[in-house]
Amino acid sequence: MRIRLLAVLVCAGTLCAPVVSAASNNKKGMSDDMRRAIAWERHKEAAAARQARIERRHPSVPPAANADRTMEEPQRQGRPVKDTGAPGTRRDKH
């Protein structure tokens, strides 16, 4: 009975060892590359926010210059063109 209990404890310890070591590695900290990448992303976000504030105060494109992107049909101008047939065919004038 004691041998089985000892075997179960050894197996449980062997199975739990990677989980415990992975948790302890996360506590130690991130790699230097990861820290630099996170700092770079924060820098980019701060620069984008700063640019948005500048654009809000002094827009580079006036609001009247925005393109019309509505889904409505444009009003037709002029007269409609009639279909004369397939391209390359000629009508005989008799």
Structure, explained:
- This protein is an all-alpha fold and 94 residues long.
- It has a domain at 30-59.
- The protein has helices spanning 2-28, 32-57.
- The protein is elongated, with a radius of gyration of 36 Å.
- The termini are far apart.
Question: Brief description of this entry?
Answer:
This protein is 56% helix and 0% strand. It has 2 helices and no strands.
**Overall pLDDT level:** 77
How many DSSP H or I helices? 2
Please tell me how large the radius of gyration is. Answer: 36 Å
Q: What is the H/E order? A: HH
Oligomer: single chain
Question: Proportion of β residues?
Answer: under 5%
Low-confidence stretches: none
Name a few traits of the molecule:
94 residues; mainly alpha; 2 helices; 56% helix
Set out the fold topology:
Layout: H1 2-28, H2 32-57
